[in-house]
Amino acid sequence: TVYPAKEDGIMTAEEITGLQLDGTWLVTLSACDTGLGEIRSGEGVMGLRRAFMQAGAAYLLMTLWSIPDQEVTPELMEDLYKEVIEGGKNPREALATTQRKWLKTLRDDKGIHYAVKNAGAFILSFQGKPEE
After folding, report:
1. Which stretches of the chain drop beneath a pLDDT of 50?
2. Angle formed at CA 69 by CA 68 and CA 75, multiple of 5 degrees
3. pLDDT digit string, tens, across residues 62-81
4. Are the CB atoms for 40 and 14 separated by under 8 Å?
5. What is the pLDDT of residue 47?
6. In this structure, are residues 55 and 20 in contact, taking their beta carbons and an 8 Å threshold?
7. What is the model's pLDDT at position 78?
8. 3-state SS class at 49
9. Rounded Cα gap, residues 125 and 111, in angstroms
10. Which contacts of 40-45 are long-range, i.e. CB under 8 A and separated by 24 or more positions?
11. Could you give the CA distance from residue 3 to residue 124 in angstroms, rounded to a whole number?
């Protein structure tokens, strides 16, 4: 069942479950706080994770706190996808490699707090075998 969008700019777990994501290897939600959400029935980190998995996504990349849209995040995402596409890594390995690189780079340049705040926000969820 596909649920019509409420066109309010907010995607709910109910709307996500109506998507046909079978065969989708990686869904990336690189905006602020995508791994959180308001505490409502069917919402929040478990609600969104379950919704994307139910819709067919194998991996889901989310954030746990606010991240800079214009600063580090675009470059970090570019490096992550290079690791997947050019490096042949699965999303789990690609995220680990990319976060290590950015944590070190940002720590050396602007300190540990800045590094963790900007590169440590990302978490990865998966269903099935991690080798896929």
Report:
1. 39, 132
2. 90
3. 888 888 878 889 999 999 99
4. no
5. 72
6. yes
7. 95
8. helix
9. 28
10. 42/12, 42/13, 42/14, 43/12, 43/13
11. 26
